[in-house]
Write a structure and sequence with these properties.
The complex is a heterodimer of chains A (about 250) and B (about 110). Chain A has one domain: 3-Layer(aba) Sandwich (Rossmann fold). The longest helix of chain A has 19 residues. Chain A is about 35% helix and about 25% strand. The chains are: A alpha/beta (about 250), B alpha+beta (about 110).
């Protein structure tokens, strides 16, 4: 394939409740109508790697928007804002779902949109992506990359901000699902991945899970010692193929 | 882990932040995925001043082993410092921010 040129920039978007925030938006140039993807960052925040991942997907033919889920705690650098959010116990699921829906609407409103929108998230963002697919029927594909706490074994982990285990809403998912997991991960554990798969199978969902030996959490992340180049290369290939298949 | 688990401790002192020296009254401590350190998990400490709105922080992300070494280094530094200053080890020092108010006579009686 010929790799396209890109435009990548920080844009303003209206999130949950119409709150005005910022997002990183990358899209290929000269390709006409393209599918869209809402990318969801991990708990530490809207960092450099997530912007690289945004551009990586755009490089493969998608218009990608990655909302800064913590923008309401700004202004400030993303790491400082992320620290404030952590100290406050994280962001509410309802707010994140609203932000993802708003980001999807942003993509759909662009002249380059082919009308198909998927979502991908990493770590806590994988959980958020799973949750968004449960609550946003307008999404056409879900990629969950090692989302922790999709299954909640300790009821104390549920609270006002995270009132429901995402797995308990899985019957609402109407789009195909791709899951990537490291077998050495502690959250989700291999057992939790198996139990998530069992629920999706029982519900008759369209899902594909890939489990990687020799990998734990965040094995795509090139800034971490958890990075596993071979598993990551294979995983990215599966992400591109899945999203192209289901988003056109 | 993406656990949202955070330990919070009150303290009394100062730290040098992005705008210079500032008072700090709180440390948020957690062991989770770092923002910057090239580690899978890191012991992170954010020194902030909640009384001033906690808009700035002094942040540290270190490995688990480094954190344990740091604990020992702090204990050793306090022990040697206490010995040098002849402070009985059982003496309790003020831990949180406090305002000390005393009359001239009370201050004079200390000397």
């Amino acid at each position: 394939m010929t790799y396209p040129g890109l435009i990548a920039e920080t844009v303003a978007f209206q999130g949950h409740n119409g709150d005005k925030g910022e997002a990183y938006y990358a899209r290929p140039t000269g390709m006409g109508k393209v599918p869209g993807v809402v990318m969801i960052h991990h708990l530490p925040g809207w960092d450099e790697w997530i912007c690289e991942a945004t551009r990586k997907l755009a490089h493969h033919g998608f218009a990608v928007i990655t909302p800064h889920l913590y923008f309401r705690e700004g202004p400030g650098s993303p790491d400082d804002v992320g620290a404030r959010v952590r100290a406050a116990g994280g962001v509410a699921d309802e707010q994140v779902i609203g932000d993802v829906k708003a980001a999807a609407a942003y993509l759909r409103a662009q002249p380059n949109s082919n009308g198909k929108i998927g979502t991908i998230g990493y770590c806590s963002g994988g959980r958020h992506a799973f949750l968004a697919a449960c609550r946003a029927p307008e999404l056409d594909a879900l990629v969950d990359c090692w989302g922790g706490n999709v299954i909640v074994d300790d009821p104390k982990a549920l609270n006002a901000k995270r009132p429901i285990a995402p797995i308990d809403l899985a019957d609402k998912i109407n789009c195909p699902i791709l899951g990537l997991f490291g077998n050495d991960d502690e959250n989700p554990t291999a057992d939790q991945v198996n139990r998530t798969e069992a629920v999706l199978k029982k519900l008759g969902k369209d899902y594909t899970f890939h489990r990687y030996d020799g990998a734990g959490h965040a094995f795509f992340n090139t800034t971490r010692i958890s990075y596993r180049p071979e598993q990551a290369a294979d995983g990215w290939t599966k992400v591109f193929a899945f999203l192209h298949k289901h988003l056109g | 882990m993406c656990s949202y688990i955070l330990e919070k401790t009150k303290l009394h002192g100062s730290a040098k932040g992005p705008s210079g020296w500032m008072r700090v009254d709180t440390a948020n401590v957690y062991y989770d995925h770092p923002y910057h350190a090239p580690l899978d998990h890191a012991l992170a400490m954010d020194f902030i001043c909640e009384a001033d709105g906690a808009r700035e922080r002094v942040a540290v992300e270190i490995s688990r082993e480094s954190a344990l070494d740091l604990i020992e280094a702090i204990k050793a530094a306090l022990a040697s410092g206490d010995a040098a200053h002849a402070i009985p080890v059982h003496t309790k020092m003020p831990r949180a921010c406090a305002t000390l108010v005393a009359s001239e006579n009370e201050v004079a009686s200390l000397f």
